TrEMBL record:
This is Type I restriction enzyme endonuclease subunit. It comes from Campylobacter ornithocola. Subunit R is required for both nuclease and ATPase activities, but not for modification. It catalyses: Endonucleolytic cleavage of DNA to give random double-stranded fragments with terminal 5'-phosphates, ATP is simultaneously hydrolyzed. Keywords: ATP-binding, DNA-binding, Endonuclease, Helicase, Hydrolase, Nuclease, Nucleotide-binding, Restriction system. The keyword Nucleotide-binding applies. It comes from the Bacteria. The type I restriction/modification system is composed of three polypeptides R, M and S. CDD domains: DEXHc_RE_I_HsdR, HsdR_N, SF2_C_EcoR124I-like.
Length: 986
């Protein structure tokens, strides 16, 4: 039995794990790993089950729910209960996850005698009451594919955790890919029990990761459906626990696993299941334990009853604070939890984030009167309140006799910086008598960056105000070094550009700050910086490949431009507007700042009236972009919309002064342009707007500086990391990556001459895939460097990529057909980053029509087969090229429209005939889909298109598979023609 884990309710994350010494062992295959894992789980108190199939799993569920609910089902009661609550086809993953993640959720059993009894599937109040079993090699032969699952952990009979194992030495991503395949083939295809899975674990023995179940029912692809979001477990000192043996003794310790399932998961408002990372759980547990101890010994009301959490920006502090707030409200002696921010824009952002985790769990306050009502309310749904420090300070002054001052209150300060160290903070903590105070920050204030804020300490001496002196000891730390090492946030690529050497040289002389800023505002400098940004924007944000047309828009990222003052922001916005108009560019640039001095938003402004008028005009420009109706009177709504447009990638570039540089999180931002002096915590906060993980294309936060911030950057990284932080937090220089890239290109050309394709040897195929994978990864990094010029010419790159995609399609088909697993990994997401879109192909088709140049035709064909999203349209494009050749005198637009309409009708009629579909209903259904640009593949309406299926036919006749096949064909038809119809409409 593992004695390293404290078996009590308070600790899920062990303080420091003593790693098991690893002795040299014989080769381990998947079967060896599986036997080892099950033996370890048995030693920890799991019951091993010998189950062969899904039916036996169902029978075991009945026994376990009887045990949990202290009941015995009659056969009739069980059949009805199972059919309605477990195997009901109207229930999907979302519904079943709600059953498990809602504290108050119960199911109703109608007993044979007419009485009713509440049934729970999991005991969330007392997690250790749940019963754990482990089963391996369970067969699922209910659908088209015959799958056998490695290891499943049953909680009260339900498979809530699934573990996929690969032999040592195999790429861990292959285990992830196999789970994705199981999800597609059987987990979420009417498999009543495996729709309950909450956590997936993947391991090759050496490396082990976990992640939450992907929600396949969302119309948008879940972020969990990406290998980048797999998590490593660790102890409270952030030592990663990767080996399967160590992971089993920690993460899978009975109480730990049950705590994670019942306390440290969040099923958010977007119907995505989130699992907290180890450092988040550790921080939450430290705070709750601190509150319990301080309450027990009654030493609340000072910093001894509090502390601060130092978690790197971008590491998920809001989720940690949310779950901590929820757990604090469950302590019966806590009256309220107040989540305090220092600016009204963060008030809105926090409310929105909390609402994502659980709608209505927290309450924002519009004014002091509403704060009073909520803070004195006894309603259970008003126990968590989000407010600004300004409103809380006014409440303290205005309502001197409120009864809340004698209640036990938890204060959680978000981003506890200097703005929360002043008089308002002192007024608040003096008034409340029984408080517990906690701060969250990614960049603490130490003496070195404390400025000139002092207070009188207990010895009557002046002492600098720091995070520790204001909030208490650091309860848990997870620095930017930890976050980047764990791949929870991305490193930064920082470039420094000398924009106007003569001006900057002159500024080295001792002149005032005002004169310096005035010189930097020169028209010539602003024009050059703006021009540079526009020329490189698509490359910086990965919106176009090297061989695309200028201004050709594709999927990518967006950017923020941090400027030194409102005057800078105004001048840059004017210059961008001017150059965008000159270049006929469709780039959308916005600007936002506070146009008046106030204590919430402290932007530097020379002329408040001018700033106000200018912003009013900029908002009108914004309205013209997005057909909206914002104004200065609706500034808060404008702010909220800008925030959402950034997250949705509808706004390409936002010019700011201070807004959006702290507290704003958007995974879609990858670039920060900086014409502003930054240092210490302000610098790292601003940089960190760019380094949220999104997908495999986003490999770093791209920082482009137009001031010399190199020393400031190094000092900041040393302060919040250590002396060696730069080597971890910052990418290497251009030469480091380019030298590797050139070596790989030479190896590719020497070993795989294009004349020798296709490759028939499996050994050659695997070696080619491996080399090309590495080329794609390096190219993804190098594309951000201004110096990068690809030594591989465009045509050769397209040809190699075509062969790569052909191998991908062939091997994928082989894997699915033979139901086998291959260790090959394909970097398809990195290819998609550089995809040519349909707009560009249509442009080339029209150019070919006009010029009849063979090289354009060749380019079209090469481009088509070298891009994943165009390969299925290859025949269509080739046919249209022949149409052009045979109809030189026709109008191009009419030729294109008539051809596409004719092909669309021909293929649809053929599909209707082949599959015996209802012609009238099918055409109406697809007409609506093309009109809405959305294909709905579920619901009664689509069922009405399909041929009648004999309801009495045995399942083996493949009714479900036939239905799925028809729907897939209809959707493929829709996808094939929608892109051309959409382009034509535009």
């Amino acid at each position: 039995m593992n004695d390293l884990i404290t078996q009590n309710d308070n600790t899920t994350i062990v303080t420091e794990y003593k790693f098991t010494p690893k002795e040299p062992k014989a080769y381990q295959n998947e079967e060896d790993l599986e036997k080892f894992l099950i033996k370890e789980l048995e030693l920890q108190g799991y019951e091993k089950l010998e189950l062969n199939n899904i039916l036996e799993l169902e029978n075991n569920l009945k026994l376990q729910l009887e045990r949990l609910n202290n009941i015995v089902f009659s056969q009739e009661e069980w059949q009805k209960f199972y059919k309605e609550n477990i195997a009901n086809k109207k229930l999907n993953f979302e519904d079943k996850t709600k059953m498990l993640q809602n504290d108050s959720f119960t199911l109703t059993l109608e007993k044979d005698d007419g009485s009713k009894k509440n049934i729970i599937l999991i005991d969330r109040i007392n997690p250790i009451n749940n019963y754990l079993q482990v089963v391996s090699q369970l067969k699922n032969e209910s659908g088209k594919f015959k799958n056998r699952y490695d290891v499943s952990i049953l909680v009260n009979g339900l498979p809530l955790v699934h573990i996929e194992l690969k032999r040592r030495g195999v790429n861990l991503k292959e285990a992830f890919n196999q789970i994705k395949r199981y999800q597609k083939e059987s987990f979420l295809q009417g498999n009543a029990l495996y729709e309950f899975v909450q956590i997936f674990i993947i391991s090759n023995g050496t490396l082990t990761k976990y992640y939450s179940n992907t929600n396949q029912y969302k119309t948008k692809k879940s972020l969990n459906d990406n290998y980048a979001f797999c998590m490593s477990f660790s102890d409270a000192k952030n030592n990663i626990i990767e080996d399967l043996e160590d992971f089993t003794k920690t993460f899978l310790a009975k109480r730990n696993l049950l705590n994670i399932l019942t306390k440290y998961c969040v099923f958010n408002a977007d119907n995505e299941l989130l699992i907290m990372r180890a450092y988040q759980i550790a921080a939450s547990e430290r705070i709750i334990n601190k509150i319990k101890i301080a309450h027990k010994y009654k030493y609340y009301g000072n910093v001894e009853a509090g502390g601060f959490i130092w978690h790197s920006t971008g590491s998920g502090k809001t989720l940690t604070s949310f779950k901590t707030a929820i757990l604090a409200t469950k302590l019966d002696f806590i009256k309220k939890v107040l989540f305090i921010v220092d600016r009204k824009d963060l008030d809105y952002q926090t409310q929105k984030e909390y609402d994502k985790f659980e709608k209505g769990a927290a309450n924002a306050t519009k004014n002091t009167d509403e704060l009073k009502r909520r803070i004195e309310s006894t309603k259970e749904d008003e126990k968590i309140i989000i407010t600004t420090i300004q409103k809380l300070s006014k409440f303290v002054q205005k309502y001197d006799n409120s009864r809340i001052f004698d209640s036990e209150i938890v204060f959680i300060f978000d981003e506890c910086h200097r703005s929360q160290f002043g008089k308002m903070h002192e007024q608040i903590i003096k008034k409340f008598k029984k408080y517990y105070i906690f701060g969250f920050t990614g960049t603490p204030i130490f003496e070195e960056n404390a400025g000139k804020n002092y207070f009188v300490n207990d010895n009557k001496n002046l002492e600098l105000k720091t995070t520790q002196s204001t909030f208490g000891d650091c309860l848990h730390s997870y620095t930017i070094l930890n976050a980047i090492k764990d791949k929870n946030v991305l490193p930064f690529k920082v470039s420094y550009h000398s924009t106007m050497k003569q001006i900057e040289s002159d500024l080295d002389k001792k002149i005032s700050t005002i004169d310096r800023e005035s010189s930097l505002l020169s028209d010539e400098r602003i024009e050059k910086i703006t021009s540079y940004i526009l020329e490189n924007f698509n490359r910086h944000t990965k919106r176009q490949s090297a061989y695309m047309l200028k201004n050709q828009r594709v999927q990518g990222f967006n950017a923020i431009f941090a400027t030194a003052s409102v005057d800078f922001a105004k001048k840059y916005y004017e210059e961008f507007s001017k150059q965008l108009k000159q270049n006929n560019s469709n780039l959308k640039v916005g600007v936002i700042y506070s146009y008046e001095q106030n204590e919430d938003l402290d932007e530097f402004i020379n002329d408040t009236q001018s700033a106000k008028e200018f912003l009013s005009k900029a908002i009108k420009d914004y309205n013209s972009y997005f057909k909206s109706d914002f104004s200065l009177e609706k500034f808060d709504n404008y702010y909220k919309d800008v925030s959402q447009k950034l997250k949705d990638k509808e706004l390409d570039l936002l010019i700011v002064v201070n807004m959006f540089l702290t507290g704003f999180d958007s995974k879609t931002i990858n670039t920060l342009y900086v014409d502003k002096n930054l240092k210490y915590h302000g610098l790292l906060q601003a940089f960190s707007r760019t380094n949220r993980i999104l997908n495999e294309q986003k490999n770093c936060g791209n920082i482009v500086c137009f001031r010399d911030l190199e020393n400031a950057t190094n000092k900041s990284l040393q302060m919040f990391g250590d002396e060696k932080a730069s080597s971890i937090v910052l990418l290497e220089n251009f030469a480091f990556y380019f030298e590797k890239y050139v070596v790989l290109i030479d190896e590719l050309k020497q070993k795989f001459d294009l004349l020798n394709f296709p490759l028939y040897s499996e050994k050659e195929q695997k070696e080619f895939i491996k080399i090309f994978n590495e080329i794609l990864k390096l190219e993804n990094i190098l594309s951000l460097f201004d110096e990068f010029k690809n030594p591989l010419n465009i045509r050769d790159k397209q040809d190699y990529q075509s062969h790569y995609l052909e191998l991908y399609a062939t091997l994928k088909q082989k894997t699915e057909k033979e139901n086998i697993n291959d260790d090959l990994i394909f970097e398809i997401e990195l290819i998609k980053q550089n995809e040519i879109n349909v707009d560009f192909i249509l442009f080339l088709l029209e150019e070919y029509y006009k010029t009849n140049q063979d090289k354009i035709k060749e380019s079209i064909l090469k481009t088509t087969i070298s891009n994943p999203s165009l390969r299925d349209k290859k025949e269509l494009i080739e046919e249209f090229l022949n149409e052009i050749d045979n109809n030189k005198n026709s109008d191009y637009k009419s030729l294109f429209e008539n051809f596409m309409q004719r092909k669309k009708e021909q293929e649809l009629n053929q599909l209707i005939k082949e599959e015996n579909l209802n012609e009238k209903l099918t055409k109406e259904y697809l007409d609506d889909a093309f009109e809405l640009n959305f294909f709905q593949d579920k619901g009664e309406r689509i069922g009405g298109l399909l041929p009648a299926i004999n309801p009495f036919a045995p399942k083996s006749e493949g009714n479900d598979e036939k239905r799925e096949s028809i729907i897939n064909k209809l959707k493929a038809f829709f996808d094939k023609f929608m892109v051309f119809l959409k382009v034509d409409d535009e």
